[in-house]
Amino acid sequence: MSFFNQSATFERTWAGTRRHILEVVENGKYSHGAKVAELESALAAYTGARFVVGVNSGTDALVLLLRAVGLKPGEEVVVPAFSFGASATSVVLAGGTPVFADIEADGYGIDPAAVADAAGDRTRFVMPTHLFSRLADIDGVLRVARRLDLTVVEDSAEAIGMRHRGTHAGLFGAGGVLSFFPTKTLGALGDAGAVLTDDARIAATADALRHHGRFGATIADFPAISTATGLPGVNSKMDDIQAAVLLSKLTTLDSDIARRAELASRYSEALAGVSGVRKLPERRPDSVFYVYVVEVDARDDLAAYLSAVGVETEIYYPTPLHLQPCFDGLGYRKGEFPNAERACRHTLALPLYPDMPAGDCYRVCDAIRDFYHGRRG
Ligand SMILES: *Cc1c(COP(=O)(O)O)cnc(C)c1O
């Protein structure tokens, strides 16, 4: 049973995708062209962002956002100890230093109280990450950020469709990002990402940085760049072919999200009360089931058993960020962030994608039940 598969989704949306792709091919501009601009407008309408800047990955979106909000060398960004690596490596790539904070005991987002403990004299930003199927405690993060005078930038790479009090993820602070990596809720046929912001200056800077720092339209504008942004740009343009795919899939995004929620409900019903399953994801108003993650006992043994009986699962994420070898130099120790370490030890993502047959859900749950019964008996 596949963890993820979008071939059926593509067949379902192929007519629209084909039309958009043909327009790209005929238009003749295949990178940073009209289709990218069309996608940016459509995403602005979907999220409510004033500005959307399409780039070539969610990771690049984080790096360019951090540079655009004015992160300076040596300045610190508080990031959760439990997240995808890019939440912290983007800070380093943008010239800053990550400072880790633990996640909440009952969730996967940064703990606002831990942000206050982690922040010091050189801390200027905090980057909450919205993981799996729900937002971080964004009200708590905004409160602590206001008190400590920190700017909020969100790693909302997984959070398309997640809203709180009518605001879409990524727009609670200075800006956020989206990832369109194929497995994400809105996935391309390759890599793509975007910066979301309501701030015209941040948008203009990210816009310039993605395109070698160019503000103008012609090669002759190049010399103006460095004086305009003071920053060297990169090549992080989005491919129009990916924009074409995303525009087509955007039309079914809300129904895909509803289908994900339906499958998640089936999982939750079938797994309720199963011994060995410690925690099921909550269904909340902000929930979008990008992935369905449970916490279980004997996680690695269960994952090996499921793999042996043909069920693919994923572990997001086996190692907390503060214990990643690339951050050895920061001097963190094992045991410092117990909630992050708990999540790394117990979480398991089960198969979930909009066109997954409902029967697969039950087969996965049967296999999980068999595993724990076998261990007890
Ligand atoms: C996917 C993801 C990213 C990076 O996005 P890419 O498009 O893969 O570069 C960053 N942060 C989180 C939390 C993610 O899930």
Written description of the protein model:
The chain has two domains: 7-250, Aspartate Aminotransferase, domain 2, CATH 3.40.640; 253-376, Aspartate Aminotransferase, domain 1 (Alpha-Beta Complex), CATH 3.90.1150.10. With 377 residues, the protein is α/β, with parallel strands linked by helices. The longest helix has 21 residues, at 7-27. The chain has 13 helices and twelve strands. Helix 3 (58-68) packs across helix 4 (86-93), helix 5 (112-118) runs parallel beside helix 6 and helix 10 (253-271) runs parallel beside helix 13. Bound molecules: pyridoxal-5'-phosphate. The site of pyridoxal-5'-phosphate has 15 residues, from helix 3 and helix 4. InterPro entries: DegT/StrS_aminotransferase (IPR000653), PyrdxlP-dep_Trfase (IPR015424), PyrdxlP-dep_Trfase_major (IPR015421), PyrdxlP-dep_Trfase_small (IPR015422). The modification N6-(pyridoxal phosphate)lysine is found at residue 184.
Secondary-structure blueprint:
Blueprint: H1 7-27, H2 34-47, E1 51-55, H3 58-68, E2 76-80, H4 86-93, E3 97-101, H5 112-118, E4 123-126, H6 138-148, E5 151-154, E6 163-164, E7 167-168, E8 175-179, E9 193-197, H7 200-209, H8 224-229, H9 240-250, H10 253-271, E10 277-279, E11 292-296, H11 299-308, H12 338-346, E12 347-350, H13 358-376
This protein binds pyridoxal-5'-phosphate.
